[in-house]
């Protein structure tokens, strides 16, 4: 996967050393907005140092091809994150979150469309997206992006829709 993906309005780039303060500020500001939907928020809030350490781990995982996480930027402003997870013996998954102050601008759809194009270029056969059953906004977005509801599961105390998208046939 590429470290940098540019769209019309956004730059998706792998997390870098020095991104910790911006990530910490975004998560703190967006806590109430993200907590109901994003499982990693159960571990928040973390200290700034723990967040900086986390960014270093994100960079290591990206380089190792384990989990690809991109900071989503509009200009130089962090508006969220998009991710692609390879999973052993399972369909890879995508995910995202947006800073509360940047919702409603189409950034999530633009970022995920960029990830879908990247996955298609890498000939990824299928992708999953796990979305809380009560998250109407994200469920609607994922459906509009061509995913089909595959199943509903209980995972770590959450009830999730599992959406599936198979790579379009190239003609």
Q: Extract low-pLDDT stretches.
A: none
- SSE pattern, N- to C-terminal: EEHHEEEHEHEE
Termini, distance in Å?
Answer: 23 Å
Please give the count of helices: 4
Largest sheet: 8 strands, mixed
Structure description:
- The protein starts with a strand and ends in a 5-residue tail after the last strand.
- It has helices spanning 20-34, 48-64, 107-121, 136-144, and strands at 4-6, 11-14, 67-74, 77-85, 93-98, 126-132, 148-155, 158-166.
- The chain has 4 helices and 8 strands.
- By secondary structure, it is α+β, with helices and mostly antiparallel strands.
- It has a single domain (4-123), classed as Aminopeptidase.
- Strand 7 (148-155) and strand 8 (158-166) form a beta hairpin.
Question: Can you give keywords for this protein?
Answer:
4 helices; alpha+beta; about 30% strand; about 170 residues; Aminopeptidase; 8-stranded mixed β-sheet; 8 strands; globular
Blueprint of the fold:
Elements: E1 4-6, E2 11-14, H1 20-34, H2 48-64, E3 67-74, E4 77-85, E5 93-98, H3 107-121, E6 126-132, H4 136-144, E7 148-155, E8 158-166
Parallel strand pairs: 5-6
Antiparallel strand pairs: 1-2, 2-3, 3-4, 4-5, 6-8, 7-8
Helix pairs in contact: 1-2
What is this entry, summarized?
The chain has helices spanning 20-34, 48-64, 107-121, 136-144; strands at residues 4-6, 11-14, 67-74, 77-85, 93-98, 126-132, 148-155, 158-166. By secondary structure, the protein is α+β, with helices and mostly antiparallel strands.
